[in-house]
Design a protein that fits this description.
Blueprint: H1 2-30, H2 34-58, H3 83-96, H4 104-116, H5 126-135, H6 143-160, E1 203-209, E2 215-227, E3 233-239, E4 244-249, E5 253-258, E6 264-265
Antiparallel strand pairs: 1-2, 1-5, 2-3, 3-4, 5-6
Helix pairs in contact: 1-2, 3-4, 3-6, 5-6
Length: about 270
Amino acid sequence: MFKKIGFALLLFLAAFFGAAFFAVAMDAFKEQDYQTAIAGAIMTILCLWATVKCYRKIRPKRDSVISTIETTVTPQSSNGLDKHDFFIFKQLANQVISDDKITLDEALALQNFLYKNGGYEDDRTRHILVITDDILADGQIDKNESRELTTVLGEFLDAIDKPPPTKRPKNRNSFKPVDVSELGLNELLDKPISSSRITPKKSYFILYEDAKGERSEREIFVSSIKKNKAGNKIVYAQCKSANAIRSFRLDRIIEAVDLETGEIIK
């Protein structure tokens, strides 16, 4: 409280002296005393800079999408998110990952919403809140943390909105879809896919296993492959099944089929 009062006083003084120096500069310019006019202009700019800095220290936080965050606040709900709140959070998560980049304000909005609506008590969102808390512990979010949170939110959305089954593709050489068990791929389920075989700017049909062990089949167009903070390779792609941008951990891709050649990548 006292800190804000101090900055408010400095704000007033900076604005007052800024106006005074500006008046001096204008009078000196009219009298063609250019040396004094330049000095007055410089002092005016410095006072303006100080005014802006002080204002940023005392201005209230935005209260629209992102409100003031208090991570130590006890969640208001003891039963988790109700149907309406869950729908709102789902829309918020979709909006946040729509551009494949999560900003600090967007991460704070997610954290604030979950704390206020009992997200920690909800089994569906608890892990998201825990990861978000860990990412925001230092008050910022870097590119790797943004990718990690994007992956978590993508898996969350896919789990609640499971895409419809996708038929296995046929390639130009009449590649015929077969049952996974017939190929003996069950023995390969625990082996990660080779990172050198999936490349950007290509389409694949994949069998993917998320963090909860749930598997889904989908068709994707890979845009890029990058490493997150933990060193895991993340595949960023347009998912045809979900009709949205999604990110997939490379080591969780169980099977992939190159849609151009029909080659099964193991």
